[in-house]
Amino acid sequence: MKLLDPLQSYKIASQITFVQLGFILAISEHLIRDEFQLENRDSAILYMFLAHIFSFTMEFIRVMASKFDINNRIIFFTSNFLSAATYQSAIFYAQLKIVDTNDDSSLSSDARSKDEKALLWLQMEITYYYLHTALVIVFLFYQSVFNLKLREMTLNYVRKTEDELQKEREERAKNAQPLLEQIQDEMNLGAVSEIQIQRRIRKLNRNFKKQWNENYKNIWSPVQQNQDFLILAGSKIQVFIIHGINLYFTIIFLSQHDENRREDYKSYQTTCISIITFSFLIHIYTIIDEFSLLDFQKIKLFGWTIEDIVEKFEVFTPYLICIVIILQMIFVETPEIIAKYCAGNFIAIFIGQKLVELFENIAEALASCLNKQEQVRMKRDPADKFIKSEKTTIKQRLIHPYMSTVSLEIDIYAITFISLYDVQLQDQKQLEEALLPRSDSQQQLDNQQKTSINDQEKLEDKTEKQEGEDSSADEDDDSEQNQDQDQEQEDVDFLPNNKVEAAKNFASCAFIFLIQFLLVALVSFEFSITNQEESLTYEVLLTRLLCAILLHMQLERELRQSLTMLNFARSMVKPGQNRNAMIVVSFMQFTSAFGTELINILLICTQNSVKDVIMNFIALGVIAEIDDIYARTLYNNPIKQKLEDPDYKPLKITASAAVAGTHEWYMPATVFHWIMMTFYQCYYYYFMPFTALLLSYIQSKYQGL
């Protein structure tokens, strides 16, 4: 799958419009009941409420505009980024206020109760956010292992019946009548030619815009296939996570101890169990439907397809659960708090979903009415009026190829890798020439050529010797000067790449790796003995996250390069000593880059001031640049010159030309590549900077205890 934009991971949580509306409704209901106030937890409730409103407004405007074919993507993508940033900022602030250990002994019992309920609500907000992230990681894992299965529409052409043709003629005549009347009016005005030209221009623009929008909406089109995977599979991810969140969210909070819960009051707990059962069934169905080739549209049970049965179950069951919850809220007084909040969240999100669907249907109806005349104008007879198409769907595996090219930076790891591969090609070429069969006539011709060449060389040596004896002293001085010039010319020539130079490069690569490893180990040792007791502030947490993102952007290319080098070495290089060395080089670069990023995140999480976080981030970032710094000091290196050449063509990884080499390192390299590639796709590329947030939360929680 194509991983093109790591910032997409920060936009996913705020893109589900009805969830944002559901949280707005839920918070409003709690405020009306005076269960907590916006000022609780240092106004964290207020910031979350405003963030939900802003995110919902931006996404709602974008969705509604798309229904009317208003596609100003510059504004839409910018607003989407702003809404995501606003929501993320509110989440991070709420995360700090959860672990805040301020003394509340001076508060009244009512104020303390509201503060506890506000804390519970913030915990639910944080849990929802990280569950959303975790489910996206699970979705990426399923995609990496099983591949997403999507339905693709195919067209089968069959001959139309006479009744169908007659019906189409009548419909075309009816639809064409307004257009004919308009043309007649234009002809009466005497402006036929100019109006026709303008109409044709508008028609071309509409057709081009419509075709582009259709290609953008089609997941199989080249426009979509060149998008980041989270954009490509955005709708599938939303379907996957919504029931998963309802399932795991309810399980997590229902398993917590509720001091107010009593054995004789379990009405909301029973309702939550029904929510868990419903969400579990739909979630399992979604996993099977999206990641298997089973087509539930074709499997029937009691005369109904399984897809129809599940759709009806998914539509009517939430209504029944919501009716029960509403009746409980009206007629049942229960001391349960956690289960009540879980049930309230479910009904709020469900109502938000139905409201958004209602608005979308209204917008589609209005857009259809406004564009009805345009649709009549654009309607034309088919190419063959006697042929009709029947649509059928089949499931196809979504293969999103990526990292099929070994794009190399100018560092010692890349130089060593290409040097070893170049020597491997030289050895392979010599072996092929040695094993190439030669005929007797060719061998005789070669012997004759060698004999004539030897005779000519002997004659030239004899002539040169005679001329050398007759040379003067002045000519000796000239020859010495020419020798000095030749020596200077040899000093600037590039050394040829051979086994000796490749071995030197490998030794230098190992030395640089050892330096990076030792520096990372020393920083890790210092981190293990550091004792941090200062409280965490919002400014420091935000600085940690931003530095982690910047570091990730800096080091991601090195991990990607190491994985592509490893994949190329294990699948495209024939067995041999150099192949094993190439695998080792790939492993060293992966280890050094990932270790540097992880230790850097650990280090900045021990700093409790903005200045210290930035200074340590910059200082430790130099470790990642050591291989680049060393490569810049290399002179007269043919491999470096080759990589710097603008005409250099990067190595290609093609499945059809893969070499299934049988050697002792092939299977370990394949297993290691699969594990690290899965880790890279599922967590590292999108979510590695989140490690700073997780460590900060654990650190603050530990200090609070």
Please specify the SSE layout and strand pairing.
Blueprint: H1 17-32, H2 40-67, H3 73-98, H4 109-145, E1 149-159, H5 162-189, H6 192-217, H7 222-225, H8 229-232, H9 234-254, H10 267-291, E2 300-301, E3 304-305, H11 306-331, H12 338-370, H13 372-378, E4 387-397, E5 405-406, H14 412-435, H15 440-469, H16 473-492, H17 499-529, H18 538-572, H19 577-604, H20 610-624, H21 626-632, H22 638-644, E6 651-652, H23 666-687, H24 690-704
Antiparallel strand pairs: 1-4, 2-3, 5-6
Give the tally of structural domains.
2
Mean pLDDT metric? 77
Question: Main beta sheet: strand number and arrangement?
Answer: 2 strands, antiparallel
Number of helices: 24
Low-confidence sequence ranges: 373-390, 487-492
Radius of gyration: 35 Å
Q: Which percent band covers the strand fraction?
A: under 5%
Order of helices and strands: HHHHEHHHHHHEEHHHEEHHHHHHHHHEHH
Looking at the structure, what is the overall shape?
Answer: globular
Q: What is the helix fraction of residues, given as a range? A: over 70%
Number of strands: 6
Structural class: mainly alpha
Distance between the termini: 42 Å
Strands of the biggest beta sheet: in what spatial order?
1-4
